[in-house]
Amino acid sequence: MFLRRSLALLLIGVGIGSPWLVRDWLASEVGSSTGKKGESTWAGHFREKFQEFGKRWKTGGAAVPVSPTPVEDVVRPDTKAEREPYELASQTRRIMEGFFGGSTGTRSGGLASWFPSSSKVPETARSRSIVDETLARLEGELVPLGLAPGDPVFLRIFKEESELEIWMKPAGEPFFALFKVHRLSSVAGQSGPKLREGDGQAPEGFYEIGASSLRPETRHYLGIDLGFPNAYDQSRGRTGSDLMIHGGSSTAGGFVLAPGAMDEVYALADAAFRAGQDLCAIHLFPFRLTDSRMDRVWSSQPRWTEEWVNFKEGFDFFENVRQPPAIALAGDRYDFRLVEGEN
């Protein structure tokens, strides 16, 4: 039985890795090289992997430091060299992550317990370089506010105002503090929730993401998967997939930031997960649900009035408490409560 399982897992791994093997082989056929005379990208890739394995063996399995890629060499999405992943391979990888329990600090089970991982936060050499450079740059802005990379992160987005807020919780403090507000480049659709796949709408509501929601490789530069549809959306029969906060220019996927702004959001979330944050709350609103703005909604009675009134409960909760609420479903409505253990 063990032999069969091992063989099955080996074949699955080869299947997942085959698109990248083909890519590297094709690159070698057109003359790409690793800098070592006569050696192709394909061969160089495996040479580097075996060298890394040998170093890990000698150091007892400890991670081998890798020199970061210079920031000026990082491919930006506004160039013709924008990175396009293999979509089939990307989908297969996500399926396998779910099968193995995912590389996340918020879920367990599946076959993940058979093969514990030393790192629960997904990364590539490119994303690691971006994160390291961004955190170093942000240190001067964080320190005066009593903040540091690794502090818990909370995000709010307002469609109408085209704003994304980054909130962080200083060490030893009970309340979140506003760190920065970024202007969204664009938002898919208009005010109102996402109802179905392909309707061109960005979602609204209350979401929680784990480390596996970070997308270091997407066709949109960097991304954070929102986890749509959540239990609330599913209870209302709403459908959709790959809804993200991402960098770049395309509105596909939901909420778009300029690459530099996406660097900051992604890097701070990455650091928070690595420091032990299990879940990052992301609240998505049609607009700022202030009393005056809701008076206008109430007078005009748009289609989503009842839903937005429920959303306002969650908006007001954070405005008053400065802590994201624990969220549950009460019938077909969101229910907001103080997180257990918080004052």
Describe this structure in words.
With 343 residues, the protein is α+β, with helices and mostly antiparallel strands. It has a domain of 211 residues: L,D-transpeptidase catalytic domain-like (Beta Barrel). A hairpin with a 2-residue loop joins strand 11 and strand 12. Helix 1 packs across helix 2 and helix 4 packs across helix 6. The relative contact order is 0.11.
Protein topology:
Blueprint: H1 2-29, H2 41-58, H3 87-99, H4 125-142, E1 153-158, E2 163-168, E3 177-183, E4 186-187, E5 205-209, E6 214-218, E7 221-225, H5 231-235, E8 244-247, E9 254-257, H6 259-274, E10 280-285, H7 291-300, H8 305-321, E11 326-330, E12 333-337
Parallel strand pairs: 1-10, 8-9
Antiparallel strand pairs: 1-2, 2-3, 4-9, 5-10, 6-7, 7-8, 11-12
Helix pairs in contact: 1-2, 4-6
Descriptive key words:
single chain, 343 residues, alpha+beta, L,D-transpeptidase catalytic domain-like, 5-stranded mixed sheet, 8 helices, globular
Alpha plus pi helix count: 8
Average pLDDT, rounded to a whole number, is 78
Q: Identify the CATH architecture of the domain at 127-337.
A: Beta Barrel
Structural class: alpha+beta
Biggest sheet, in brief? 5 strands, mixed
Name the strands of the widest sheet in spatial order: 3-2-1-10-5
Bin the helical content. Answer: 25-40%
**Class of the domain at 127-337, according to the CATH hierarchy?**
Mainly Beta
**Can you tell me the CATH superfamily of the domain at 127-337?**
L,D-transpeptidase catalytic domain-like
Number of strands: 12
